[in-house]
Amino acid sequence: MKKALIAAAILSAATLTIAGCAPAAPAAGGKIELAFWHGYTEADGDVLNELVSEFNASQDGIEITPSVKPWATLLDSALPALTSKTGPEIMALPVENIPVFASKGALKPLDDWYGAADSGASVLNEQAVATGVVKGEKYAVPLSFTPLTMFYNKTMFDAAGVSVPTTWDEWVAAATALTVDENGDGTPDQYGLALQDHGTVGNGVWPSLFKSGGGDVVTADGTSVIDSKENVATLAYWADALKKGSFSPVGLAGADADGLFSAGKVAMTLGGPWMASVSEAAGIDYGIASLPAGPAGIKASALAVDMSVTSQATDEEAAAAQTFFTWFYQHANMVKWSLASGWPPLTTDVTADEVAENPVVSALTDQSQYGAALLPGVIKSTDVLTAMDTATQKALSGGDPADLLATAQKEISAALGQ
Q1: Stretch 335-359: mean pLDDT, rounded?
Q2: DSSP per-residue string spanning 152-165
Q3: Residue-by-residue DSSP string for 98-131
Q4: Percent share of the chain, pLDDT over 90
Q5: How far apart are CA 312 and CA 68, in angstroms?
Q6: Interval 135-190: pLDDT, tens
Q7: Beta 149-153 vs 286-289: how paired, if at all?
Q8: Per residue in 390-399, pLDDT tens?
Q9: CB 302 within 8 A of CB 371
Q10: Alpha carbon distance 211, 225 (integer Å)
């Protein structure tokens, strides 16, 4: 699911504006029928469909029919379907698409549901909620929100006598100590860290590092700040550390890092819960830890998917969808969703102990407090990330961080119309 979800971040160009539709009467028998499109095709999809069935059985007034489509297919077909009024009333979207769909009138605001005392929204992870905010309005509710985490090779750590790092300085020291060049040819046989410099996992490595260093990429009000002094210091820190320690190959994308870790060529990498099964399949004894803290603490960009009510829904159908949302976030449902899907809980009232039978979910539950929304509300997120990637990749290859971020600032500001 991970590869499909990351690929879905690039939405095909669409110029359609979604027209409203007239209210419709409930289906025969008095039930309100809702179509729900999502792209979860693995265990997460099975449990989501099962939960929908349980909701249908829990009451007599609403019937939701889920339809599973690969993310790319869903994103390509959703806008045309909504325009022709043949789309769904509820739709799951990778969060980078929320601003795009909202800007085209494809989604209904959900502020009233969030403001209702009995909605259940008060226990939702605040940063997960932030992924669905566009120009101050909430257009989505969270469906998955998984902060970037660190996977490490326990065998390599034990052999080197290295402890799991908790700060950037400890991280660099550990990565250097875990780098091994057995024949002294200048090319390590084992690297300490797979430091991705472009096309990173969920596009989140450098937003995480910039935020942990006290900076940001784009502020909540949509202003580019990538050339801030904090970001220059962060990029210089990692470029200098890599030059001195040679603890990572350069030019790594997220898929490259996954491959190095699963091949036993690197001691630490950044990724998501899928790396647990990848590691197990490769016979790697792995551990999971939060990202080490930077000067501003730990900020881990999250891979996320939201649910939205589409413009096709009548007021009555939108209210029915919101009834489902409230039911979905009930405590027992959140525990079931997390344990079966492998994604950490979306609500703050579920503890790590309650999902301890899945050690990966339990570890990520503890780390959910560090999760950060990636570019919430930014329509031109692809352009922003491209400019950022160019700067980080060139900096780790020897370029000047300040100059590169200044160029990125101009490119991002232009993309955002500033």
Answers
A1: 96
A2: EEHHHHHHHT-PPP
A3: HHHHHHTT-B---HHHHH-TTSSGGGB-HHHHHT
A4: 91
A5: 19
A6: 999 999 999 999 999 999 999 999 999 999 999 999 999 999 999 999 888 899 99
A7: antiparallel
A8: 999 999 999 9
A9: yes
A10: 11
